[in-house]
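Hi W.,

Here's what went into the run:
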Amino acid sequence: MFIVELSDLQGLITALQGNGYAVIGPTVRDGAITFDTLNSVDELPRGWTDVQEAGSYGIRRREDDALFAYNVGPHSWKKFLFPSRLRLFAAQKAGKGFEVDPAPTGTLPRYAFFGVRSCELAAIAIQDKIFMDGKYTDKHYKTLRKSACIIAVNCVRVGGTCFCDSMNTGPRAKAGFDLALTEVMADGKHHFLVEVGSPLGKSLLQKVTHREAQDAEKVQVDRILKAAEDKMGRTLDTQKLPRVLQDNFEHPRWEDIAKRCLSCANCTMVCPTCFCSTVEDVTDLTGDHAERWRRWDSCFTTDFTKVAGGNMRMSTRTRYRQWMTHKLSNWVEQFGTMGCVGCGRCITWCPVGIDITAEATAIRENSMSTLNG
Amino acid sequence: MNRKTQAAEVEVLDPMTTHPVLIRKTIWENDDTFTLTLDMGDYGQGFRFLPGQFNMVYVYGVGEAAVSISSDPAKPAVLDHTIHRVGLVTTALAQMKRGDVIGIRGPYGSSWPIDCARGKDVCIASGGIGLAPLRPIIYTLIKRREEYGRIIVLYGGRSPLDLLYRVELEKWANDFNVEVLVTVDRGDSSWKGHIGVVTSLFQYIKLDARETIAYVCGPEVMMRYTVDELDRRGIPQTQTYLSMERNMKCAVGFCGHCQYGPTFICKEGPVYPLPRVRPLLDRKEL
Ligand SMILES: Cc1cc2nc3c(=O)[nH]c(=O)nc-3n(C[C@H](O)[C@H](O)[C@H](O)COP(=O)(O)OP(=O)(O)OC[C@H]3O[C@@H](n4cnc5c(N)ncnc54)[C@H](O)[C@@H]3O)c2cc1C
Ligand code: SF4
Ligand code: SF4
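Here's what came out:
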């Protein structure tokens, strides 16, 4: 493990750019911490923090000039790897038929994601399973993913809606990064403890002024991260939860949630693992050129499950049930992990503050099954 | 962006890209159902499918629909799709003629298992358009008719005019010793056959429970009643297969639309062994 001083952190951005990466990182925009192109350390949300609760989000000034003292915002990295709109192919009229032009993947950017939280690493690993590890591969996703560099940042404070500890996804990044930084501000010092996660990370670090970390400095970080873990905003008991939800398919709580849920789909848009999409076909005015686009979709939309014979999920009750049961139960059978990483976004950005941890707990506590958790 | 910042292309075939193929003919089966015969051209080289699998069929500028392949798997260069006109894509397909070009990608999904049927009786129960995904397995069975015991086809339609493949149904009965039993919900003046739901045809057949393999496809209610009937007749659940349908946008496990409980119909289905979906069939609005 190594130490990079605050004053040398710019060197890492410069090194990434020198390696040909388009660097993306957190920045303050429109009252939120979102992701954008990052050229300089000065563009990071220095001295900002966020305050998150069920149904509310705000940013506040801090007393210090910490660079990473906030948690995840409305954006997640899926917006880059799995863009909200993507052209799948274009077709050009040719005689009686048409010719197909597949989506070009050769001109995609090489991203360096700067400031990826541990829960987000887990979310990326989950989307990898969907788009790269099955029988079929999403070529666009794979091209971007394989060439992306990941600079993780450990969470030294946790947010009001976070529960990564319960989901075993944080707050400390364990794998899946090229470099992982922990920001340390104590005793007049402001530096970063750096862990190397790959040969790429190692070569990047060589371009940045750094030194070996002392044992005391490592222990200090262990302590900081342990303290964060103990302050988790929320918890979710995952013991046998997949079974509990299956056994409570007709639980009255689903109707209770439906009375509050607006079916607005916010939760699915902000969720870093939600992957549903739909397609749109467009033609130009002459009709000589057609395109097929993919865009994000949500299991909360009314026609998501429409078939010629009717609609499979007709109510908010059954749509919310599908969403939560998918996240916390069916996903396990489909992909070997839960579909929730405990980032808290769905709780924060739900306009009426519906809290997945509270709802799952309510169902467990009044379980209709013999299991009782 | 300079060259250096560009991602290296990863060598995989994009599964969402469609491939143009030629329509050879359209045959109207009834008022709103037609069979397209496709000349697969270049895309046909190396295209093989199993009975029960489906394609994503694309109409230029309009969209895509999941459609089962309804022709003989032994002839993959010329494909049939039997299509019920219900919406945007299927209506556009209905208007296409010989020589027009549509897009195809596939084949996708699981198939009717055939090995388990060797030496056994086969009971096929279908309703409406549900006979289309079963036709390839019927072709396969009658090609080696001697390898199977009884072959029973139970088929129900809304009215006599709605029935698919009427000529072939007769041919299977007459030339291939298939026990074909047909019923309609509503008869007409010319109809001398049975009137009632598909399950009511079971009263006319005796099944050797241990020796029968059942393939079922039709509207979900029909399948629910049919598996109950098969259950009553003691057919072990492990010997029954059914094909499910859900809204589907990608057919390759990306879009999330076709989830059926813990399964994706495009990946694990559409054909499932009954024990896999039996608990799901009873769940409303799953
Ligand atoms: C595995 C599988 C095999 C199928 N095989 C056949 C077949 O052999 N023949 C056949 O006629 N049909 C088949 N279908 C159904 C067919 O895919 C839909 O009817 C078709 O997508 C409707 O497209 P559309 O654009 O004409 O209708 P739309 O204009 O999209 O809509 C018409 C109605 O169908 C619903 N719908 C839209 N998309 C789908 C969809 N993907 N699946 C089901 N309903 C949908 C709409 O919500 C609406 O209620 C199959 C479906 C699946 C999943
Ligand atoms: S379900 Fe909610 S808490 Fe879990 S990963 Fe998605 S947005 Fe985050
Ligand atoms: S749970 Fe909240 S965010 Fe999700 S659809 Fe309902 S109201 Fe919208």
